[in-house]
């Protein structure tokens, strides 16, 4: 699903069965097709090109309703970072590390450093959003340090190449591959098991050959990762392992 950065109009989407459900239609001048996004907390957004008739939007939602309901249920427990206390421990399953988090108040802006097998957060702790921000920045640095080399190793193993890698903190997808060969990886993969991370790498590397989800694409994925189906299911529910502070 594509994140559209350009300004866009927003309309309310009424759902007769669940009128209280947080639905929204966003009209984007850059959109060429209808897409769906589900956000932490269960908010649903339908992105549509300008001039899309309401009837077409309704039919699109009906066709994908089972997928929407499944994703809403998966994302419902995830709230914005502001509603969760700062973490006492961070579990990075991807690299098998558990880091206790120690907070020490001080007059300077918050900063994070690893020290003696723990994560030390020092500085002005009175504004939690700032503390969460430095934790998120640390997560990005750590993810790039570990995930970028791991992707390169997976590409070499399978004889596939890519132009460059980006590690970002995304809310709606685990990874993507552009037509120019840029692979984007979600830093929140650090909270997933090594097998699931490996599958995500395989999935995106396969897109360097097939920019679609055709039968040829899935055959290539299966050659590289025979157990991809179970790993795909695990990745789909992987948001359950991501703490809210890392998303908000």
Can you walk me through this structure?
This protein is of the alpha/beta class and 248 residues long. It folds into 2 domains: 9-75, no CATH class; 82-247, Metalloproteases ("zincins"), catalytic domain (Zincin-like). Helix content is 35%, strand content 22%. The chain has helices spanning 54-63, 65-75, 128-158, 194-206, 215-224, 228-236, 244-247; strands spanning 9-12, 23-27, 35-38, 44-48, 89-92, 97-105, 111-115, 118-123, 164-168, 175-177, 182-186. The strands form 3 sheets. A 4-stranded mixed sheet has the order 1-2-4-3. A 4-stranded mixed sheet has the order 5-6-8-7. β10 and β11 (182-186) form a beta hairpin. α4 (194-206) packs across α6 (228-236). The chain is globular.
CATH class of the largest domain: Alpha Beta
Under the CATH scheme, the architecture of the largest domain is: 2-Layer Sandwich
**What share of the residues does DSSP label as strand, in percent?**
15-25%
Distance between the termini: 19 Å
Taken from the alpha-carbon principal axes, the silhouette is globular
Structural class: alpha/beta
> What's the name of the CATH homologous superfamily of the largest domain?
Metalloproteases ("zincins"), catalytic domain
The number of distinct helices, counting runs of at least 4 residues, comes to 7
Number of domains: 2
What is the CATH topology of the largest domain? Zincin-like
Q: Could you state the order of secondary-structure elements as H and E?
A: EEEEHHEEEEHEEEHHHH
Tell me the total number of β-strands: 11
Write a compact overview of the structure shown.
With 248 residues, this protein is α/β, with parallel strands linked by helices. Helix content is 35%, strand content 22%. It has two domains: 9-75, no CATH class; 82-247, Metalloproteases ("zincins"), catalytic domain (Zincin-like), CATH 3.30.2010.10.
